[in-house]
Amino acid sequence: VADWYKGKYIHIPGRVWPCGGKESTEKGIKKVTYDTNKDGWLDPVEIENVNSLSTKDTYKKKKGKQVLTKAPTISSFKGVEFLTGLDIVSVDRFSGKKADFSNCPAYMVNIKGVTSKQITVIAPNAEMVYVQPEVDTKITKIDLSKCNNAYEILAYGNKGTKTLKLPKNKENLRVLSLSEYGFKSLDLNSYTNLQQLYLYECDMKSVKV
C-alpha cells in the first residue's frame, strides 16, 4: 500500500490491490466495493470504510470432493498504517519474521500459518493478539513483547519452541492461552491482572501465577 499512497489517497493498481472484497454479515457473505466511485483511488472516506484486512483458506466442492484453495501468503504488512479505519487484521498464511503494526489502529491481530522459525509481532494498539504456526513449522521463538495493550493473547508453538516473550507492560494481560511449548517453567507472577490461563500440551513442570 505504501508505494501507492499519495497525500490522503491510496492508488489501487487493478492487478495488485483489489477494489473490494467480502465481509460477513447477519445475512451471510456479501461482496463489498471499497472504491465506490471506481476512480482507481481510495479517498479518505473510502479508506475509513476498510475495516477488515484478511485472507482465508477456502474449500470448494468439485466432483463431490472438497478441494482446498490456499490463501495468499503474506510476507510483510508494510503500508497497513495507511488503512486508518482498520479494526481487524487476520491472515491464514504468513512467511515473514516480523509483523509490524506500529501505527495500525486494529484492535485484533490474528496471524496464522506462520512459516518462519521466529516471529516478532509489534502491535502496540491491539487488544487481542493471536499467533499460530503452520503445522509443519518448527518455530523456535515468538516475541510479543511489544504488544503492550493486549488483554488477550493466544500463542501456539510446538515442542521445539523454547522462547516466548510476553508484553513488557504487565498490567493489561487478562487472558493467556499457550499450546505446545518446550520450556519447563513459566513465571507469570508479575502479570498481576491475569484472570484466565490455558495450557495445552505443554511439558512445564513449574507454573507461577
Task: Please write out the topology.
Elements: E1 5-6, E2 9-11, E3 20-25, E4 28-33, E5 41-42, H1 44-48, E6 52-54, E7 58-62, E8 65-69, E9 88-91, E10 98-100, E11 108-114, E12 118-122, E13 128-133, E14 141-146, E15 152-156, E16 163-165, E17 175-179, E18 185-187, E19 196-200, E20 206-208
Short descriptors:
single chain, 209 residues, mainly beta, 7-stranded parallel β-sheet, 4-stranded parallel β-sheet, 2% helix, disordered N terminus
Overview of this structure, please?
This protein is mainly β and 209 residues long. The model is unreliable at 1-7 and 13-18 (pLDDT under 50). It is globular and about 60 Å long. The chain has one helix spanning 44-48; strands spanning 5-6, 9-11, 20-25, 28-33, 41-42, 52-54, 58-62, 65-69, 88-91, 98-100, 108-114, 118-122, 128-133, 141-146, 152-156, 163-165, 175-179, 185-187, 196-200, 206-208. The longest helix has 5 residues, at 44-48. The strands form 6 sheets. It has a 7-stranded parallel sheet, with no helix packed on it. It has a 4-stranded parallel sheet with strand order 10-12-14-16, with no helix packed on it. The protein has a 3-stranded antiparallel sheet with strand order 1-2-5.
